[in-house]
Queue: 2 jobs
Job 1
Amino acid sequence: MSMNDKDNQSRLSDSFQSFFNSDKEGLLAKAIEFFPYLIHVFAPDGTAVFVNEAVLQQYGITRALLENTIIGKYNILKDPTISAAIPCSLLQQAFQGETVYCPDIKVPLDTLAERYGVQDYDMEAMYQDITMFSIFNNAGKVAYIVSIQIIRRIYRGKEEIERAKEYIETHWMDAFDVKETAKAAGLSRTHFSRLFKKHTGMTPHDYYISFKIGRLKDKLSDSNLSISQAFAACGLDYNGYFAKVFKERTGLSPSQYRNKDTKR
Amino acid sequence: MGKKTKEQLLSELLVLQKELEKKVQHQDQMIRRFQMLTANESLFSQIIDFCPYPIAVFTPQGVLETVNDAFSAATGADGEELGDRKLSIYDCISNNVELDSAIRQVFAGKNQFLDNLKNPLTGFEGLKKKTELPLKGYRKAIIFPIPAEGGLIMHGVAVFTI
């Protein structure tokens, strides 16, 4: 790449960056993009106009699927699973410009999995609180209908994950062994790591480290033990790498943690 | 300086390839965002403005950058005047330890979900100018970071729901 190309690219990148960082519309676009719950926007005839990133992630929707089957194609008013989940009168009210709140709506996961070609959502059931409101145009007419879906309850209940947690919590004093943990869960190593992260939000190793830190915190709170003894009681060496891990995870060194804890 | 071995050259090439892939990925992301923004021009600010739940966008220093109409209606904070007033969200929630801590943690990159809050907006009552709307009813807060390019978190967003 020539210097000129590089300069141009860098200038372009800076312009984009400043645009997204300073412009109010850019800032709000990012607020919608990073909103951790699901946002759908529909035209007054029910056609999908926009969905945020959380929708794609939650339901495993690819960009291609979004463009080919959802935006401009999917119609909420013609979806029988929606009319089965949300009372028809409420949906009508929402599309007539009223703000509607539907608490604790069960999400039709099987239908969604089939629609989006997802093999398994790895959860038994999900319930959402749905708020629908309208955006009006200058003439006071409904221009868009927005649906915000906040997850209220998720039921996962995967036995394998519970078995893995139990194994980690029993063997936390030993060095972490993903192979043995996967074996305890009765799953292949790759499948296990993926499934564990989906269910707990952390990798098996992170879970192991968090559990170990929790135990170390308990020991550090025991004023009868020196800090080295607290480490030793957890099978750790105070001068080893774990003191650094502790600080990275908690923001405090072991001695700072102890001082803070005793002041409480 | 001696000649590099074939393995060394290959490994250098791999590093270069990875760097290029990273750059292309970054560019793709920017283009996608820009496309999304132009395709939905003004829709995003409308979603936030028409949202029935109070929403506030703030900086790491706590300065309220923008609030939506529901937030203004509930507290009296005027979105237009916020820029001049440099109002700090921390001053308004100093009596709510849980909320204060959650807002600070957002800048460590974590989403925060608070439940069973007791009138989290009462700290903003001092701002009340135009409205006497009740601040009660909001019991939950969703607080999340907005990372800028490069991963730095330049803004946090708080959404108060029922």
Note: Chain A has a mean pLDDT of 86.
Job 2
Amino acid sequence: MEKEAKEQESAVGLIITSSPHILKETSIPKIMHTVIMALIPAMAVSIYFFRLRAVIMIVTCTLASMLTEAFFQRLRKRQVTVYDGSAIITGILLALTLPPSFPVFGAVLGAVFAVAIGKQFFGGLGYNIFNPALLGRAFLQATYPVLITTWTEPFAKKGVDAIATATPLALMKFEGKMVPLLDLFFGNTSGSLGETSALAIIIGGLYLRYKGYINWKLPLGYLGAIFVFGGIFWLINPAKYPVPVFHILAGGAMLGAWFMVTDMVTSPVTVLGQWIFVIGAGFLVVIIRLFGGLPEGVMYSILLMNAIVPLLNRWTKPKIFGEVK
Amino acid sequence: MAVSKSVLEEFTKGLWSENPVIKALLGLCPTLAVTNSALNGLSMGLATTFVLISSSTIVSIIKRVVPAQVRIPTFIVIIAGFVTVADIFLKAQFPPISKSLGPYVPLIVVNCLILGRSEIFASKHSVGMSIIDALGMGVGFSGTLVVLGSIREILGSGSLFNFKFLAESLFTPWVVMVLPAGAFLTLGFLIGMINFISSRKGSKGRAQP
């Protein structure tokens, strides 16, 4: 629940300012640092499974994001706010969505694109339409389509350096094979750095929820929509389509649900808008995964729904009491 | 008609201050579609320049006999004639280029740059001035297409005018740059940068039209 609201009091104990009247001790750095804390389990698991590669990717992306942010803020003669943590989160999230074998120059390019075009070109934090980390990844997907779909087995699994393999989603889509759900839950599969372990991401997400910085509707609505739409197809043809739980645990669904759908800047502000946003995104994930050309659809689902968030905010604006058309 | 400008001014306005692609955003369809290599950009630019100069000349010559009510269909017929000439010439003399430009050569007919210059300029000015104007606009258009094509070719395939100078081992080509998305990105960057340069020039006290 919400933390205790501290109210600003005037000398006589009355609030004499205009709204907002409920003031909280939250600030951008505080929220961002909490999100970074929440990402620690996912980062730890990725480092456990992918060893040095994970460290290199996370450090590279974070540094590149921070430097780009500082450079553009200086260029635009704005206050340099690198330490508020938003660029750090963009860097970490981008790293967690990349395959472990991705080259370092590509990671730097993605981080620069994410922060420069995804965020600073729109006017900085709070003005961006798209989630910067996902935009960076989408650019990399279009720029290096081969490198970004080259996956390796977790090192912890086989005890060898790297084995090229397909992700659980690709196995399902192109070969009709299923990866054990328990492996998906704990993360012992191939995939992007941070998306392999559902458990670690849920821990981080629940921490964020406990802190009150994310709205439960967004992650649960998103996963619920994926579950329901995936379930409908499973009921139609259980032999061809995977069980709905698979959809939730595989690929980037967990990471997207807890850390990208819930982005405060790029999600709708109204309750109805939020429901439309998450259900639409969940529907797109299932459609892209089952019928699209790519095995994974989380990135495009969130980006596409991000694009209509300004419209959702306008359409679902609540009526002022007593308003006459 | 309006205040007569010098010949040089009429020529140079197409290069920078009224550049058809960068400033007027005209003819974006070929600009975005065929600039995946510098050579394609150059061929499209030259073909358009030829059609532009020829049609501007004819439109300027017949401007007094064309009734105002039917001037647009008349211009289109003239433009279409020259586009057919360009299309057949490319097919006969440069089959590979004609093939790589595909349907975008016949589509020069609907390039609003050409109709725009006929309507705005050639139908109101003397033949000589119309040719100068068309030449300036054509050079500006071709130049922009070559710049766009070069950027996209260097980043997208590591080569320039089909000359490969970046080895795959040193530089992994950005596939996105030869795709349509790369065209939008590059054009956006180019326009943004040129507007930035123009605004700086303006703020430093230079004369701004």
Note: The longest helix of chain A spans residues 28-75.
